[in-house]
Amino acid sequence: MRKVVILGSTGSIGVSTLSVLAEHPQQYQVLALTAACQTDKLFAQCMQFQPRYAAMVDIDAAYQLKQLLQQAGSKTEVLAGAEALCQLASDSEADIVMAAIVGAAGLLPTLAAVEQGKTVLLANKEALVMSGELFIKKVQQHQAILLPIDSEHNAIFQCLPAALQQHSYSQSIASYGISKLLLTGSGGPFLTTPLAEFEQLTPSQAVAHPNWSMGAKISVDSATMMNKGLEFIEARWLFNCQPDDIEVVIHPQSIIHSMVQYSDGSVLAQLGQPDMRTPIAHALAFPNRMSSPVPPLSFKQMRDFTFSEPEPERYPNLYLAIAACQYGQGATTALNAANEIAVAAFLQQKIRFTDIHRVNAACLEQFAQTKVCTLEQILQLDQSARHNAEQYIRKHC
Ligand code: NAD
Ligand code: MG
């Protein structure tokens, strides 16, 4: 019986994780569930899975949850505040920690799990974008097992030689005969929208992804392709490679989830439904396999497979992220922070869709050369970049 902690259980990835775990009650036990503030949803999850602990960042919401659980006769112990998330992520009984908080807020609890040498299933890409080098060093130092949940990185991981899967992060991919990692992306909902319409695009249009059902922030990131940019940076750290080793390919059908090209000319791809329960089941069972609720892919009904290059005018945020990856850790931390502020402002209809790139570009220009090494410096830069982005929005948008 492996004990699982889910950070961000009420979100899209959290719910998909619970749906996979529900199929395998003999192998996995839910030890803890956490959320920011959605009391009703977390209450329902606690009633179904009866975890030992539940935690909410919002103190009032935690108090409400405690009352509800007590009234329902549940034995789940409720914790409150951001610190409680780190405590649960590093609980001595936890075997697996699913890191599925959205944004920079996921960094500290995910690192807490890494520092206890847990098996960490990483969906929270922003944590790695902010702190890649430091994060991977901690993984090595504490012998944590890091398994990618992001579908592209999970696909690449599945296409790697077994030896590299076991000894990630130390040897270069070239030493295993790999010449390129091919990151695929659908191009989002605006793949064919005329560029002249971009200024008027609304949040509801941006979150309506053609293939994937996801949280609001990552849906907007998919529309700008900043998501692929963050994934580019994520791949650079996860697979210990250089920006030149990674190429982004648009594949609107979202059936090929990414590919690995070898120096002998072979290309290995992982295919599947656009459903996160496949990478989640893969990582939970690794190195074995187990069933998931995802229907099998039917090649009889398969439509065309098409590929193209992402246009720089359509997806300027993708190219900002690639540039940030080349600058280094300070640039990626600042860009991630600016993007979180810009996307939140766009979702609140305070700025236009096209302003997201303007905010991000201004912030990257300001902090591109900033050097950060320690966690304190990273967190400080994250705050400065947020402040800078907010100021830019007030003055220019
Ligand atoms: P979501 O918005 O649906 O859920 C986010 C979860 O994090 C919720 O449980 C929420 O309560 C919690 N949360 C939010 N703010 C928090 C805070 N300040 N402190 C603690 N908890 C907080 O997001 P999602 O779509 O499930 O994405 C989660 C992460 O997984 C993101 O980093 C995203 O990029 C990544 N990811 C998601 C998908 C997907 O299909 N949804 C695919 C690949 C990667
Ligand atoms: Mg992805």
In words, what does this structure look like?
The chain has 397 residues and is of the alpha/beta class. Helix content is 46%, strand content 15%. The protein has helices at 12-21, 39-49, 59-71, 82-89, 107-115, 125-141, 151-159, 162-166, 203-206, 216-224, 226-238, 277-285, 316-327, 329-347, 355-367, 375-396; strands at residues 2-7, 28-35, 53-56, 77-80, 96-99, 119-122, 145-148, 178-185, 246-250, 256-262, 267-271. The strands form 2 sheets. The protein has a 7-stranded parallel β-sheet with strand order 4-3-2-1-5-6-7, with helices on both faces. The mean pLDDT is 96. Bound molecules: nicotinamide-adenine-dinucleotide and magnesium ion. Residues 150-152, 231 line the site of magnesium ion (MG).
SSE map:
Blueprint: E1 2-7, H1 12-21, E2 28-35, H2 39-49, E3 53-56, H3 59-71, E4 77-80, H4 82-89, E5 96-99, H5 107-115, E6 119-122, H6 125-141, E7 145-148, H7 151-159, H8 162-166, E8 178-185, H9 203-206, H10 216-224, H11 226-238, E9 246-250, E10 256-262, E11 267-271, H12 277-285, H13 316-327, H14 329-347, H15 355-367, H16 375-396
Parallel strand pairs: 1-2, 1-5, 2-3, 3-4, 5-6, 6-7, 8-9
Antiparallel strand pairs: 8-10, 10-11
